[in-house]
Amino acid sequence: MLKPALPGPLLHHPGALRATHRAWRTEQARTHAGLPESDPATTLVVGHWAYLGSGYSPGAALLAADVWHRKELQRQFAAEEGC
User: Fold this and answer.
1) Which domain of life is it from (predicted)?
2) For residue 13, is it within any domain?
3) 20 to 30 A from 38, CA-CA: which of 8, 19, 24, 30?
4) Phi then psi for 53, rounded to 5 degrees?
C-alpha cells in the first residue's frame, strides 16, 4: 500500500510530519495484526500471555556484568585515591 501524499505545509513542520507518519505506521501495524478499529470509548484487552523465562537473557547478563564491573572499579578507585 502506498503512503498517502502529505500536503505541502506539513513538510515545513517536522513535528507534524512525524505525527502523521507515526499515525500511518500505527494504522498499518494494527491492520497487519488484524486488530479491530481503535475506539477511544473502549479498552482493548489482550488475553494471551507467553512465559519466556525469568532473569536476564545472555546478552543482558553480559551488559549487566559489564556495568557491575565498571561500577566496582570506580568504587575501588574512589576508595584508594580518595576522589
Assistant:
1) Bacteria
2) yes
3) 8
4) 115, 180
How far apart, in whole angstroms, are the C-alpha atoms of residue 57 and residue 67?
15
Q: Residue count of the chain, please give it.
A: 83
User: Under a CB-based contact definition with an 8 Å cutoff, are residues 20 and 10 in contact?
Assistant: yes
Pair 59, 26 in one domain: no
Examine residue 63 and state whether it is found in any structural domain, yes or no: yes
Alpha-carbon span 73 to 60, nearest angstrom: 20
Residues 57 and 34 in one domain: no
Residue 48 and residue 57 in contact, taking contact as beta carbons nearer than 8 Å: no
What pLDDT is attached to residue 44?
A: 74
Q: What range does the domain containing 29 cover?
A: 1-39
Convert the pLDDT of each residue in 9-36 to its tens digit: 555 566 788 888 888 998 899 899 888 8
